[in-house]
Amino acid sequence: MPTQTLTHDILHQVSQRVVGQQAMVERLLIALLTGGHVLLEGVPGLAKTLTVRTLAETVRTSFSRIQFTPDLLPADVIGTQVFDQATATFSVKRGPIFANIVLADEINRAPAKVQAALLEAMQEKQVTIGGTSFPLVEPFLVLATQNPIEQEGTYPLPEAQVDRFMLKLRVGYPTRDEEREIMKRMAGGETIPVKQVADPEHLMQARKTIAGLFLDDRLVDYIVDLVHATRAPKEAGLPDLVPLVEYGASPRATIALAQAARAHAYLRGREFVSPDDVKAMATDVLRHRVLLTYEAEAESVTSDEVIARVLAKVPAP
Questions:
Q1: What does the alpha-carbon distance between residue 172 and residue 132 come to, in Å, rounded to a whole number?
Q2: Residue-wise over 155-170: b if at least 16 C-beta within 10 A, else e?
Q3: What does the alpha-carbon distance between residue 152 and residue 133 come to, in Å, rounded to a whole number?
Q4: Which pLDDT tens digit goes with each residue over 127-157?
Q5: Could you give the CA distance from residue 153 to residue 156 in angstroms, rounded to a whole number?
Q6: Which of 9, 14, 34 is nearest to 24 (CA)?
Q7: 212-313: what fold?
Q8: Beta-bridge mates of residue 229
Q9: Which of 30, 49, 137, 249 would disulfide-bridge 289, Cβ 3.0–4.6 Å?
Q10: For 183-201, what is each residue's pLDDT tens digit?
Q11: Residues 222-281: tens digit of each pLDDT
Q12: Sign for the pseudo-dihedral over CA of 177, 180, 182, 184
């Protein structure tokens, strides 16, 4: 399937059900086309779950939703061994993690053991039940949501797990016109049908194409310079950021930014990556990997602002 046809058809079908949120939909598609995981942050009611479910329907992939709660157990996510009294043997009952697209709703409500079980699935693309490892079927994608305004009774995600999300997206409110359209569409209370316009085979073929897109050596250096500037801002000519940044982005950010930039170019029908592709994806790739100091919090400086200053300072090729 041609590039433009594949991406246009998927985005068109999702827009039949989801009003606005074009940036979120495009980033979710980028993650799906690169095999990266996504952390979605936004208040309830912004169509995060609806968008993920709709995307799964349009590309004919299996979908499961896990509502994370403080009493959730690892077995509730990955599955467990069940004893059959009739045969006196154990069999494996697979959990909801065995799906192509997994929505982990309010992931920060789950305790550390559950987050560790999910971590293995995200990184190793496999789960271990009773000492036996079971591979997860590709494409495999974890899309996790967290509510930024309600922190009571939550477990902050470990930095090691946050770093494994390729993108962190901040989902905002719709515009007035978009909200009016949402109200009109939902007046009947019926779910708008969407068509299946792709399948997992198309996605895997697209991944191979994206991995082969041309990335000039000067852009490779540019990506490395951007990430390095978050770790050593003084060397990049940004001494005023030194007291604001506790830790810069990890090497995983360099890989993720290159992959995301390639996918961004692919969605626009190009066979090469441009500096604009890197700039377009830099904030979503880096915002959760740049850890700020207490001084930055006191001055109400966000990681997005730090990244914007880095992008403005580091010269693009």
A1: 42
A2: eebeeebebbbbbbbb
A3: 35
A4: 888 778 888 888 888 998 887 766 655 667 7
A5: 10
A6: 14
A7: Helicase, Ruva Protein; domain 3 (1.10.8)
A8: none
A9: 249
A10: 777 766 667 778 888 888 8
A11: 999 999 999 988 888 889 988 989 888 889 999 999 999 999 999 988 889 999 999 999
A12: negative
CA-to-CA separations, 3 to 9, 51, 181, in angstroms, rounded: 10, 21, 30
What letter represents residue 82's amino acid? V
**Phi, psi dihedrals of residue 84, rounded to the nearest 5°:** -100, 110
CATH class for the region spanning 3-199: alpha beta
What is the 8-class DSSP label of residue 18? S
Residue 118 one-letter amino acid? L
Distances (CA, A) of 206 to 33, 52, 211, 269: 7, 19, 9, 12
Query: Could you tell me the CA-to-CA distances from 111 to 79, 114, 141, 155, 239 in Å, in that order?
Result: 17, 6, 21, 6, 39
Sequence-ordered list of residues with C-beta below 8 angstroms from that of 58, at least 6 positions apart, any chain: 9, 10, 13, 14, 194, 195, 196, 197, 198
Domain boundaries, the chain: 3-199, 212-313
Cα separations in angstroms, 9 against 5, 29, 112:
6, 12, 39
> What is the reported pTM?
0.87
Token pair belonging to 71: 């009493």
Relative to beta strand 79-84, strand 89-94 is: antiparallel
Phi-psi sector, 285: left (phi>0), alpha (psi -120 to 50), beta? alpha
